[in-house]
Amino acid sequence: xxxxxxxxxxxxxxxxxxxxxxxxxxxxxxxxxxxxxxxxxxxxxxxxxxxxxxxxxxxxxxxxxxxxxxxxxxxxxxxxxxxxxxxxxxxxxxxxxxxxxxxxxxxxxxxxxxxxxxxxxxxxxxxxxxxxxxxxxxxxxxxxxxxxxxxxxxxxxxxxxxxxxxxxxxxxxxxxxxxxxxxxxxxxxxxxxxxxxxxxxxxxxxxxxxxxxxxxxxxxxxxxxxxxxxx
Length: 231
Known about the structure:
Layout: E1 10-16, E2 22-34, E3 37-42, E4 47-52, H1 64-68, E5 73-78, E6 83-88, E7 94-102, E8 105-114, E9 118-120, E10 123-135, E11 141-144, H2 146-152, H3 161-180, H4 216-219
Parallel strand pairs: 1-10
Antiparallel strand pairs: 1-2, 2-3, 2-4, 3-6, 4-5, 6-7, 7-8, 8-10, 9-10, 10-11
């Protein structure tokens, strides 16, 4: 049976390194889980886990291949001062985040290109594909991290040029939705307010249970459309 989540349930969204290690973890509350996908709320101050070096310094600024080659560990970091609603459609190969500066005031959308979601009892796992789209409230948009996407294309740990073409096509399909003002860029959830009593989500005890996802290296040569979409 596919894993499903109920509104209000604590869930974690985990982004994985190509070798299967956890790269980042976000702690959230489930808003909805339906035909549109899984929507979660990461409130301001919710616990996030990110990679740091052995001195405790964040490693996000480093080239990805360099970060993977050095010893790192996960450390708790509070979510930004604003809240974020994240929708991960099943099988879509991307997620969309609504960011709010103050309750109900949209800062914009952030589209993250990633592998189709892998579900497990505590949340979801994805591989990040580097390429992103920044979208303003008026739906003007721009690419983000195109250089990183290009640098990682063809690297043994990441994706082949053929897979990169699939990722780019998915991104361009999203930009067409943006231009047309279609869901999820049609005003849905733009004034979203979390349920009363939903404060920052703390780290649950089971946040680091072994992932069901295979290392990205094991997927090399496998078409992205064939990557398992749920478990």
